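Review form for a predicted model. The reviewer records the input and the model, then writes brief findings.
Reviewer: anonymous (R2)
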Amino acid sequence: MTPKQPAPPAEPAPAVAPLSPGVRRHLGQNLRNLYGDVHAAPVTRRLETLIAQLEKTGR
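Model under review:
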């Protein structure tokens, strides 16, 4: 009986799949359309309080 040889290590997958410039433009435009109003919305009092607390702690 012969011992089994370990399988060779698989090649690691690329960290980021490349996107074509057209796909990147399409995604960017749709994300801007989706979240543009969120960016322009006023900050609530609760969020202002939380930000002030974070600034006090130096974070």
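Findings: Residues 21-40 form the longest helix (20 residues).
Further findings: The mean pLDDT is 86.
Recommendation: see findings above.
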